[in-house]
Amino acid sequence: MNTSPTAAPEILTHLESGVMSLTINRLGKKNSITAAMYTAMADVLAAAEQDAGVRVLVIQGHETIFSAGNDISDFLNQPPSTPDAPVFRFLHGISTFTKPIVAAVCGPAVGIGTTMLLHCDLIYAGDNAAFSMPFVNLGLCPEAASSLLVPQLMGYPRAAEALLLGEPFMAETALEIGLINRIVPPLEASALAHRQARKLAAKPLPSLIETKRLMKKGQAALTAERMTEESVSFGRMLSEPAAREAFTAFMEKRRPDFSAA
Known about the structure:
Order of helices and strands: EEEHEHHEEHEEHHEHEHHH
Shape: globular
Distance between the termini: 51 Å
Number of helices: 10
Strand content: 15-25%
CATH class: Alpha Beta
Radius of gyration: 18 Å
CATH architecture: Alpha-Beta Complex
Number of strands: 10
Helix content: 40-55%
CATH superfamily: 2-enoyl-CoA Hydratase, Chain A, domain 1
Number of domains: 1
Strand order of the largest sheet: 1-2-3-4-5-7-10
Oligomer: single chain
Structural class: alpha/beta
């Protein structure tokens, strides 16, 4: 199967030897993600879940950037105000995907570019990777169950810096806290991710699926519950003054003023 675009041409897929690659390919917009792209990625996950020929999924961007997060203009035109919005459908798909997910992450991984990684199994990062979750700075709250999973992963003090201050952290910190598995030069990240994915694809799929299920069983229900709670809060906060000011300031290229928010 040749590499081909999905219903959203910025999302490319390729299937070879049981490994399905999903590539975010919108470099001109820093791999920012639109509602149509979320729909395409959710469709890829749903199809890969059911396809016996897919044994492992690899998610990647470009060696210079993984994703700048949401496309702000598209986000404002199509705000995810309901639980069935494309972004939440994608997050549900990736958080419940039963087969192994491997990610290659280079350059900035902003917002959902970081939180989606909480639901991947193996993550290989370029030494240029930079992770950030600036939801508070946009007048919003975390998503992807990150309000649950980030404190579990980092411990509360570091989670507070990441989620309350929205401060970025680099690949070395991500390795130290256990978010990623290995740091390599950016041009090597995708190749390493695919090598590891091929190793997984050669193993018995029922064993992979059951092992992943057992490892995640203790928090699966909590993750789903927190993701639902976050989506409700996220949708409500989108229409509140702080978010309106944050997005207006972004579009006007000025510093937001939250004194009245």
